[in-house]
Structures
1.
Amino acid sequence: MMRLFINGLAASAGGGLTYLRNVIPQLAHRTDTRTTVWLSAPLRHEFADLPNISFISAGDDAGALRRFIHEQTALPKLIRSSGAQVLLSAGNFALCNCPVPQILLSRNSLYTSADFLRDVRLRGDYAIWIDTLIKSWLARQSIGLATLTVAPSEAFAVELSQWSGKKVLSLHHGFDPAAFTSDTTSLPHTAQLQLQQARDSFRLLFVSHYNYYRNFEMLIRAIPILSARLNRKVRLFLTCQLKSGANPGAYQTDSAAALANTLRQSGEIVELGAIPYRSLHHLYRACHVYVTPAYAESFAHPLVEAMSMGLPVVASDLPVHREICGGAALYFPRFSPTELAEQILQVQKSPALAEKMSSQGLRRSRDFSWGQHVDRLLSLAQELIESRSRERN
C-alpha cells in the first residue's frame, strides 16, 4: 500500500481550495493508498472523517512567511511520523531536505508573469511587487528542489520549463460534473432576487474574487461599450465585492470600484459577493455567457465549470485558455475592452454560434476528470518510490 503525504497548508483561496476539495475525496476511495493531509484548521472543518485519509490540522494562518518557516521546520518530522513514501507539495513551494521523493504542484502563474509585475508597479503597489519577486525566486528554487514538478496545463508547463530551465510535466486538473451539481442547495436569497430582477437582461458572469491579474478593470470598461451596441439591458454578475477587505489578499479595489460606480447605480454591474461552491451551478445556469479577461492563468477551473453548464465562453487570448476551451470559446486581446465587447456581441447576435459553442463546451468539459488526475498522480508517485528503491539497492 502506498503512503502519501499532502502538504495543503498554503491552500486559502481559488484554485488551491478547489484542488484539495476535489482530490481529497478521490483519494478517500483509493483502498491501495493511505493519505495524510496537512491543512489549516478552517479548511479541515470542511471535511468529515474519510476512509483512508488522516488529517493534521495546523493553527490559524499567521502570514505567508511564518507559514513557510513552519512548513520547512515541522514538515520533515510529520512526514517521517506518518510513514509516508512520497510528499505532494500542493502550494507552489517545495520542502528543503525532504526525507522522501517530492512532487511539486506549481500552479501560480504570477511568478512568471511580466504583465503582473508591470501592473503592480503602475498601480504603485510596491509591497505586492516585492512580495511577488521574493516568492518568484522561491518558486524557481522549488522547481530545482523537487524530485518532480507538475503543472496543471501543457501551456503553463512549457512556460515554467522555459523560466526555470527544468523539466516540468503537465497534468490537467479534473472536473466531476456529478459532484459539482449534486448539492441542491439554492443560491443565497439575495442572489436569487438579483437574478430575478435581471430576468429580461443579457446576463454575463465572471467567477472570481477581486485581484489584479484577473483584469477586472478591463472587463468593467467593456460593459458601457457593449451596452451602447445592444438593444437590451446588460448585467455583469461578479462573485465578489469591489471593496477593500472583502477579498483574499492585499489587492486594493479602489480603481475597479471607481470605474464600476456608475454601472452599479444603473444595475449593469451586480456584485453578488462570494457564492458557496456547492451552489455555483445554479448561477452558471442563470447566465448567458461566461467571460474571463485574466491576463495570467495556469488552468482556470471556472472555465470547465461554465462549459459543463453549457455556457459559451469569451476569454482573453492566452495559450492556457485556448488549451482548456478550444472551440467552446471566442478569444480577444487581453487588454482590449473594445474587442472583448465585440466578441460578446458575436455570441449574443448569433443563436447558432452560441449553440455550437455550448455543445463544444459540454463535450470539452467531459475531457477533464479528477479520477484520471488522481490515477496519473499516484502512478507518478509509484514511479518515484520505485526509483528511490533502485537507488538504495
2.
Amino acid sequence: MSQATVEFRHVSKQYGPQGAVVDLSLLVPAGDICVLVGPSGCGKTTSLKMVNRLVEPTSGQVLIDGQDVMSIDVTTLRRRIGYVIQQVGLFPHQTIFDNVATVPRLLGWPKKRIDARVTELLELIGLDPARVAERYPAQLSGGERQRVGVARAMAAEPPVMLMDEPFGAVDPIVRERLQNEFLRLHRTLGTTVLFVTHDIDEAIKMGTRVAVMQVGGHLAQYAPPTELLLRPANDFVARFVGVDRGLKRLSLLDVSDVGLTDAETARIGEDGDAIRRRTDAPYVLLLDADDKPAGWVNLSQLRGSGPVGPEAVDPSSPIVTLETTLRDALAMLLASAVQTAVVVDERGRYAGVLTLDALGEAFRAAPEPEAAVV
C-alpha cells in the first residue's frame, strides 16, 4: 500500500493582478481523501495542478512527504502521481491493456509484473480482463472508460492521486456507481487522494477531509465532513453547504451504524399452520434455503395448512445492505408502502430489519466530531 502526505505551505498563484490561489495552507495525511470544493473560479483545479507542476506556484511550497515538488525532476514527479480528469484522456488507438500499462512500461517494469498489475486492477475496478483488455476505449461505455482511467492512474502504485471532476461527465446513476466503486477501491489500496468537485454532496460523500474554497482563491474551511456540516466556519460555508445540512449528515452514516432489529422469519416450504402456532406476529419474513429474503407474508391471509411458497409474499419492502447510507435508506423507506427495510449482508443473506425509528435514533446519537487540525 503506497501513501504519502501532501502539504500546502502558504501557497499562492498569481494570474496578473488577481490571485487564483492565495496563501493556501493545509495538510493531507497519508491515506486520506481530501476533496477541494467550491464555486467556479475559486482555485480548486489550480491547487490540484500545483501538486504535479502542471501549474507552478508563485510563492510558497507544495510538499510530498516533506519534499518540495519544485526540487523534483518534473518527469520523475509526474510518474509518481496518478492523475484522473473528467474527460478520461485514454489513448484512443491503444487497447485497454496498453492504456493501463502506460506508466509501468515507462518505469521499466518487467512484462510479467505489468501483466499481473493490469489484470489485478481491471478486476479491482469490476471489469473482466478477458472481456476488455484487448478492446479499445471507443468500444466501452462512458462509465467503463472512467473506471479504466482510474486504473491507469493507479497502475504504478502512486503514493498520491489527483482527481479533477473525475465523475462529472457521466449520468447520475453511473456517477453514484463510480463513486461507490472508487470508495471500495480506496479501502483496498489506501492511496492519498486530492479530489476536485463543485458538488458539495459529492465532497461530503467522498472526502475524509473537505477544503471549501471561496472565489479569489481563499480557503474558507478545512475539516472532516461531519464538522463541516455541524460547525460551518462562516456564512459562506453555511450557504455553500446548504440549509439541508442535517439531511446531508445521513450520507456519512450507513446501515451498519444502526441497531438493527430481528423480524419473525419462516422458511419457504414451511407449513402455514406451524408458522401461525409459533408466532402471533401479523407478518413474517420468508427466507429461502440460503437465508435470502423473498418477502413478507401476511399470516391473516394464509388459509389452512400446507407449504408456504414465494407466491404468498409481498416483495414491496426495500432491500438495503449494511453499506447503504442512511440517506439512501431513508429515501427508499419514504418511497415504499412498507416502512421497514430488510437488511442483507454482502452475500444477500438476511441480517435484520431497519425501521424509521431506529434510523432516527442512530442519527441523533451520532457523536459530534473533534475540531480538525489544519
3.
Amino acid sequence: MQSLLLSMSGIYIHIPFCKKACHYCNFHFSTQLERKSELVDSIVQEIHWRKEYLSDRNIKTIYLGGGTPSLLSQKELDVIFEALHQSFYLAADAEVTLEANPDDLTREKLKELAAGPVNRLSIGIQSFYEEDLLYMNRSHNAAQAQDCIKAAQDLGFENLSIDLIYGSPTTSDEMWKANVQKAIECKITHLSCYALTVEPKTALAHMIEKQKTAAPDESKAADQFQYLINQTKAAGYQHYEISNLALEGGFSRHNTNYWMGVPYLGIGPAAHSFDNESRQWNVAHNIKYMEAIQNRDIDLLSQREVLSPVDQTNEYILTSLRTMWGMDLGKIKSEEHQVKIKTAMRKYLDKGMILLDGSSYVLSEKAKFLADGIASELFVD
C-alpha cells in the first residue's frame, strides 16, 4: 500500500475560465476570457495576502483546478508559481497538479509545462467517444482525447490522471468497457471516474426538464461502476476512494489530504479553505473577487463557518467511508457520537455492506455505489 505523506499542508488554486460550458457542470467558471490576466494578478495578490492562513507554511501539494487551468499561458503560470515560492516553503518533491483539457495539450503546450514545476496532469478526457463528448458539450473531440495522452507520456509526464464519466444516456455498456480498457492499455497512473449526475441549474437539468434528453439510468450506472471495479482490480489498480483508482504509487496526494482532514488554503473565486476548525469559501463571482482583493475586503472576499463537534463528526463519516482506509471510531472525540454511529451501522454490518477491518469500518464492494447514502444514515445530530 502506498505510504501517505500527510504532514504538510496543500494549496488549491481555482482558475475560473473555460472555452465553453459543459452541460453537466455546476462549478464556478466564465467563458469570458478578456480579464484572464487581470484575475491572475488578483490570485497572486491573494497568495501574498493570505500566506498566514495556514499555521504550517510548508507545502507538500499544489493543485490548479477549475475551470480549465490549461487555458493559462506559461507566463501566467510562472507568475503564480513565483508568488507561491515567495510566500510559502515548497517541498522539493511537492506534487504539483494541473487540470487540463485535451484540446489545450498541444505538443508545444506540453513542452512548456514539462519545463516548469507541474509534474502531474489531470486530463478531462470524460470519454473516448464522439457521441459522449457531443452530448456533454465538451470542447475536445475523440481524436484529441487519445492523442494528448500519448503526447504527454512521450514528453515525460509519467504521473497522469484522467477523468472518465459513466452512466450517460449516450454511453452504452460496450462503449464504457472500451473506455476502461483504453485507460488500462495506456497505463494511466490514476483514474477519476464519476457517474453522470444532474446538478440543479445546469444545462443538462434544463434539457431533461424540457424532455430534450433522457435522464441518466441509475441501474446502468451501477452496472458500469461494477465493471470499472472488476477490470481495474484485475489490472492492478487500488480503489482507494469511491471515484478514484490508482496504480501503486499513483494516489493523488493532494486529494488524499482532503479526505484525511489535512488543512489547505484555497485561492481564487469560489475556492474553499480548511484550517482544522473552520471552512472558508471565496465569493463565486470574478468581478467581486477582484474588487475584494484590490480593496483587501475580507468580508466581500469570503465567508467562514466554524465547525461544531457534530459537523466535524459528520464530515469525518462522509469522507472516511469513501476511502479504502475507512472510518476509525477512535478518531471521533465524542463517546455519545460513537454509540449513535454503532447503533445506526448495525443493519449494514448484518447485511455485509460494512466490514470491520482492524480498527476501521470499511464499505464492502457491493456498498460502494451507495456510499453517500449510507454515510448520511450514520450522521449524528
